[in-house]
Write a structure and sequence with these properties.
Layout lengths: L1 E3 L2 E6 L4 E5 L5 E6 H5 L4 E6 L3 E5 L10 E6 L6 E8 L2 E6 L5 E5 L12 E6 L5 E8 L4 E4 L5 E5 L10 E5 L3
């Protein structure tokens, strides 16, 4: 979920939609992503003048088969902003406007421990690995200190196994 212009925007992965919620609790659909993209499991959202949504996709994992979509906040127009990511469970912009993507598993087949990473989208559209070797990371955000915080061991492990990692971004 992310705030923008006094509203809360949320992805709803099971139904493949992006909604906004007013402070009074009214829920309104911005877009049914599945209507134009199929069952791609939108799973993460951030805001920077538009909404940016990452998708998990279906299993088995196919490296490079996920995208980051740009969605207009008011009209719900969707376009591919960054193709070629894998199992995107987090998206965030740093203070310099650079986009980061959290990939929970990056090898073909079943989700695999130790294969998660954080990549940064470079100006030419290529991906630069910032952190690797993560085990089922599920979310990330930038703190007020400018550091990147990532949840690790986010699923598939006993309660209490989770970690919050602080990553110094170069």
């Amino acid at each position: 979920m992310v705030t923008a212009k006094g509203l809360l925007y949320a992805v709803e992965p099971n139904h493949g939609e992006v909604d906004y919620v007013t402070t009074s609790g009214t829920i309104t659909r911005v877009i049914d992503v599945s209507a134009s993209q199929g069952h791609i499991v939108p799973s993460s959202i951030t805001y920077r003048e538009s909404l940016y949504v990452g998708n998990l996709n279906t299993f088995p994992v196919v490296p490079g088969s996920s995208n980051i979509f740009k969605i207009t906040r008011v009209s719900g127009q969707i376009s591919v902003f960054q193709p070629g990511v894998t199992t995107a469970l987090g998206v965030a912009f740093d203070s310099q406007g650079r986009l980061y993507v959290l990939e929970t598993s990056t090898v073909p087949g079943n989700p695999t421990p130790g294969t998660g990473d954080v990549v940064r989208v470079k100006g030419d559209g290529t991906l630069e690995t910032i952190a690797s070797g993560l085990t089922f990371p599920t979310a990330m955000t930038f703190g007020a200190d400018g550091k990147l915080y990532v949840s690790n061991f986010g699923f598939g492990f006993p309660a209490g196994s989770g970690q919050i990692l602080r990553i110094d971004v170069p």
